[in-house]
Design goal:
With 531 residues, the protein is α/β, with parallel strands linked by helices. It contains 18 helices and 14 strands. Helix 3 packs antiparallel against helix 17.
């Protein structure tokens, strides 16, 4: 029913969103005299914030039209080279002679299937393109796949990877980022056990939860404490009509997004407050960066229930692969059979999603590989997102990947070593899309806010008087807090836009908003009625 309520809420606010968008265009029209007044700018800004906060974000485009090789700009074209109901294999074909492309190693990037689209790895692709032939798994939103297409679980995921490697005739290096590290390692073990000539030349695992018993994070502990049955009962929903996947059981992407956002709600509220002021003051560059970030961040996809639950059970609850108990189609997976591929693991020192040591555990699971075929990279001062995107990835991680790949490829040729001062190198690195998604947005760690949330403290005292002391643990559900704060923000922006003074908006006084919400909550607690 939760999915149906979500769709109902989206449909209910659609008329208001359409009206807000119309008013935004009205007040932004340069031929409208009001667009040149403070009231007009405030109203247009408030309408845009409201429209963007309540819209549904669809899958973004990769938008990689070119890559730079040396001093030349080379055109890039997306090509679908393999396809099944739940995934497409995309090739970023560079506009180069075939003999030139053939000299560069092939990398198959396995994007995480964990709520966001593969476009999240746009920066990863951009950095790999100059020196590699790049392919990526473009997973399909489960709500868009008809039930007639069948199931998709962890076994199917592994089968998809094996089929893709077969399509590439074994001439590929596998780069698995985060969640797919487990199925990528399993697929490699299966192919090696069968002496499959299409096994990958090397396997690079970045931030993968190979053994979540090591340095368990909040995500690992939650899965361990709740168990698979709890997730089956609480987060699995049925896709409602009229979506193409009507009737399919899924883990909705909006639940994943809610988990991310509620952990750092202050930052997201402040970001939308900043967008409002950027629009009012005409700061187009800052507003464009906000739009680009949230167009990506708020675009989420559903996962099939069977894949999600099987992953939770095998990876986070039973630790099947780490214990040597994982099976594929009923057959045991033996990582001891991995003996000829190169294995590289990458971890971030400050990764709070995949704890330090969890990915490196892959080395202990592959004793048949010689030490000359193994390499581990730990990136200092970097969180989960930074190991595959951003300046540290460009200057530190990507060069190491390129070097490692060439050490295990018949095309081996010299590649320049990593810059001594990565900060200077990162400052010089430019891409057509200069925006870097903040790693803070992709974390479940609640301690990322700069200061304790005064709203949470006030609401806690209002709803639960026994916790009047701020040092006591809070048991109040976020369900009380988030709707009040979000709609409070939007309401104040709308009021500022229409009636606020031209020099200063009421939203600038954050303390007033805290007090207003706290007073409303207190009255509701005393009287049982909303103010």
């Amino acid at each position: 029913m939760l999915y149906h309520w979500y769709e109902l809420g989206h449909a209910a606010v659609k008329p208001a969103r359409a009206a807000a968008d119309s008013y935004r265009m009205f007040f932004n029209n340069p031929f409208n005299p009001l667009s040149h007044t403070a009231v007009g700018r405030h109203a247009a800004a408030a309408c845009e914030v409201f429209e963007r906060t309540t819209r549904r974000y669809h899958k973004p485009a990769f938008d990689i039209p070119t890559t730079r090789i040396g001093e030349r700009e080379i055109a890039v074209h997306e090509q679908v080279v393999w396809q099944k109901p739940f995934c497409r294999l995309l090739h970023f074909a560079r506009d180069l002679p075939s003999e030139v492309c053939a000299r560069d190693p092939r990398i198959l990037v396995v994007a995480p299937m964990s709520g966001h689209y593969a476009t999240l790895l746009r920066g990863t692709i951009e950095e790999l393109l100059p020196n590699h032939e790049v392919f990526i798994t473009d997973w399909t939103n489960a709500r868009d796949v008809p039930v007639s297409a069948g199931r998709f679980d962890l076994d199917d995921y592994i089968d998809y990877l094996i089929e893709m490697l077969h399509h590439l005739n074994g001439d590929a290096h596998l780069l698995a980022i985060c969640q797919p590290s487990v199925p990528a390692l399993a697929a490699t073990a299966i192919m090696e056990a069968e002496d499959d000539p299409c096994a990958p030349r090397s396997l690079i695992l970045a931030g993968g939860p190979i053994d979540t018993r090591i340095s368990p994070t909040a995500v690992n502990q939650l899965a361990q404490e709740r168990g698979t049955d709890w997730f089956r009962s609480n987060v699995i929903e049925t896709v409602p009509w009229p979506s193409a996947g009507f009737g399919r059981a899924v883990y909705p992407g909006f639940l994943q997004l809610t988990g991310f956002m509620t952990m750092n709600l202050d930052r997201h509220v402040s970001a939308h407050n900043d967008l409002f002021h950027h629009l009012v003051t005409g700061d187009g560059n800052s507003a464009a960066k906000h739009r680009a970030f949230y167009d990506e961040y708020l675009a989420v996809m559903d996962l099939t229930a069977e894949f999600y639950l099987q992953t939770i059970d095998a990876v986070f609850v039973r630790h099947s692969l780490a214990k040597g108990q994982m099976r594929h189609r009923g057959r045991p997976i033996d990582t001891n059979k991995i003996r000829s591929v190169g294995l590289m693991t990458i971890e971030g020192e400050k990764d709070d999603i995949t704890g330090l040591g969890q990915c490196r555990a892959a080395h202990n699971l592959t004793p048949s590989l010689g030490s000359d075929r193994k390499f581990h990279l730990e990136v200092p001062e970097v969180g989960h997102y930074g190991i595959f995107n951003g300046s540290r990835f460009r200057s530190d991680v990507a060069p190491r990947i390129a070097q490692f790949v060439r050490c295990h490829d018949p095309r081996s040729r010299h590649i320049t070593t990593m810059p001594v001062d990565w900060r200077k190198a990162a400052a010089k690195a430019q891409r057509h899309n200069s925006l870097e998604i903040s790693s803070v947005a992709f974390t479940f760690a609640p301690a990322n806010d700069l200061a304790p949330d005064p709203m949470a403290n006030r609401l806690r005292r209002s709803f639960r008087p026994e916790y009047a002391d701020d040092s006591e643990p809070s048991e109040i559900s976020n369900a009380y807090l988030e709707p009040l704060r979000l709609w409070g923000l939007l309401g104040r922006l709308m009021i500022d836009g229409w009636f606020g003074p031209p020099g200063k908006t009421a939203i600038e006084n954050h303390e007033d908003l805290d007090t207003h919400i706290s007073d409303s909550a207190a009255q509701h607690h005393r009287t049982g009625r909303p103010s």
